[in-house]
Amino acid sequence: MNIITEEQFNKILSRLAEGLGLDSIRVTQVQIAERLGIRQSSISDAKRRGSVPAEWFLKALEIGGVDPEWIRTGNSPKYRVLSDTPNGALTTTELQKRIAAENKRELSEDELMAALKRRFPAGTTIEVNFLMGCTGEGKEHTK
Q1: Rounded to an integer, what distance in angstroms lies between the CA atom of residue 104 and that of residue 108?
Q2: Phi, psi dihedrals of residue 106, rounded to the nearest 5°
Q3: How confident is residue 25, by pLDDT bands cut at 50, 70 and 90?
Q4: Is the sign of the CA dihedral 116, 119, 124, 126 positive or negative?
Q5: Is residue 43 within 8 Å of 32, Cβ to Cβ?
Q6: Residue 81 gets which letter from DSSP?
Q7: How does pLDDT run across 93-137, given as a tens digit for each residue?
Q8: Domains of the chain, first to last
Q9: What is the tens place of the pLDDT at every residue in 52-71?
Q10: How many CA atoms lie within 13 A of 126 on its CB side?
């Protein structure tokens, strides 16, 4: 177990508070403790020991999606999005890039119809009119 200085502890506690959705400048140990579901004295004890329990980092990940490494060091991406991909978690920046790329992809007619069926209750009549082609010639299609 690495022992950290009081200054390091205070920086970690400030980032932890931010990760828990609290005002990292005006926050009290009582507020942090309430958010973590612990007693305030547990924070004082951790500060005295010079260590931050792993459960606190995990709680910030659970509540705010905040990367425990960012809380610990302030050097990694702040937010992580959990993923079941072999490469592990994605940063929000990486996720936004993937979403943007996916949004640019055109849906097939079957994918579009499946999405509409999921969105609207059975028995709903849907009329879809859209233009096809990229030459400026439009076709109307109703299904």
Answers
A1: 13
A2: -80, 140
A3: confident
A4: negative
A5: yes
A6: E
A7: 666 677 777 777 777 778 777 777 777 777 877 676 666 555 545
A8: 6-96 (1.10.260.40), 107-143 (no CATH)
A9: 999 999 888 888 788 888 99
A10: 17
